[in-house]
Amino acid sequence: MNPLIKKLADLSEKKSRLIIGLMSGTSLDGLDIALCKISGSGQSTTVQLIEFVTAPYSEEIRKQLKRISSVENVKLKEVTYWHAKLAHLHSEMILAALRNWKITPEKVDCIASHGQTIYHYPARDQQELMDPVNSTLQIGDGDHMAVKTGILTISDFRQKHVAHGGEGAPMAGLVDQILFVHETETRILLNIGGIGNFTYLPAKNQPKEKTFTTDTGPGNTLIDSLMMHYYNKPYDEDGNVAFSGDLNEGLLRELLNDDWFEEEKSKTTGPEFFNIPWLKEKMEKAGINQDELDPKDIIRTASELSARTIVKSIQQQKITSETAVIYVSGGGAHNPYLMQRIRELMPANEVKNISEIGLSPDAKEAVLFAVLANEMLAGKGFGMEIEDESKFVNFGKISFPD
Fold it and tell me: Is the peptide bond before 207 cis (omega within 30 degrees of 0)?
């Protein structure tokens, strides 16, 4: 047997695997590194988060990545360079984390690398094209990472999702059903990253209800972009700016009037769509002069937009009941303004931090990809019924270090 195939076969037979899950989001703030011990597969999967750290990007790295992320025109040589360079940078961050945790690379079975999304382009946004096709692009080459770390690496998860008929996002629903379905508690797992998304998980004693997952629209992406634009700060710490501003009802009405929010089926989006130019266009339609608005009022209104569209997306599905508990993860879980408004807009539902069911809100997405890698290595074609999505057998591309 080919020794590489034998290595995969041996990995698939292990009772548990040590897997590093990686996530770098649209905020471009750094790399989340989650060291997970994962046992079993499919519905029998159990996860223990051994270590977690966020390795920050330098200001220069953020600047360079921002130049090629979520923009229509970019130099191809820059994308090519950063596809390899980012893999090297992530590898160095992984090796540094392992040294700090006093764990040798040889003990790690696999790296699950999400990569850095630089453009998300679902078919719904391709009206100008004759033959629309769901498309998404992540950089951070898995082959470079495997060789540099000496650890088998699985990458390109979103490409597999697209190939099977999905839009490349959100990916959370697949793992949420594996890890978080409860016997009697109906759950909504809400992640507020750059983009908001949620998974609806009916309790096992409600077999007639279906799991559902979708993006909700902007989470932190508009807020963070406006904070950087007006205050040269990466995010609104503790929601202080939003709390200090006044809501502009006219602008909010125009923002909420976008057709994207009206479509009820599962959908995805990104900062390619929800960004400052989109906001400026809405201001013009509302007859608002941007220069006459206090930046605090703009950020308050953008924050309110995130809260209201999250709630609207959940309520559109007619799945919310007093028994549904909402568990929140992602950077938005640390924004008191967003959390307060979601609670106020959904008074019948308990809103809790996902840490209350045993997972760090900051680590969730990195853990998500570790579990997908585990399914690739040990699963038996586990899939789930999600509206408008296919069942999958495997996830991602395998890169060997040898």
Answer: no
Q: Is the pLDDT of residue 101 over 80?
A: yes
Report how far residue 200's alpha carbon sits from residue 186's, in angstroms, rounded to the nearest whole number: 8
Angle at 254 between CA 238 and CA 168, to 5 degrees: 70
Q: Which domains does the chain have, with CATH numbers?
A: 3-167+363-399 (3.30.420.40), 172-357 (3.30.420.40)
DSSP 304: H
CA neighbor of 334 nearest in space, from 27, 17, 2: 27
Tokens of 332: 């938005």
Using alpha carbons, select from 53, 33, 2 the residue that is nearest to residue 369.
33
Which residue has 């090629």 as its token pair?
68
User: Do you know the residue count of the chain?
Assistant: 402
Q: In 10 A of CB 358, how many CB atoms?
A: 11
**pLDDT single digits (tens) 28-81:** 889 999 999 999 988 889 999 999 999 999 999 999 999 999 898 999 999 999
Least confident of 77-81, 118-122, 229-233, 387-391: 387-391
What is the predicted pLDDT for the residue at 384?
43
CA dihedral over 71, 141, 63, 305, signed as positive or negative:
positive
Residue 154: closest CA among 8, 1, 364, 2: 8
CB 193 within 8 A of CB 24: no
Cβ pair 31, 24 in contact under 8 A: yes
CB 153 within 8 A of CB 144: no
226-228-231 Cα angle (round to 5): 95
Report how far residue 67's alpha carbon sits from residue 74's, in angstroms, rounded to the nearest whole number. Answer: 8
Sign of dihedral through CA atoms 225, 369, 75, 269?
negative
**If we measure between CA atoms, which residue out of 36, 314, 346, 343 comes closest to residue 201?**
314
Higher pLDDT, 272 or 319: 272
Structure tokens at 264: 């009820």
Residue 152 DSSP SS3: coil
Look at residue 337 and give its three-state secondary structure. helix
369 to each of 4, 59, 252, 364, how far by Cα in Å? 22, 26, 35, 9
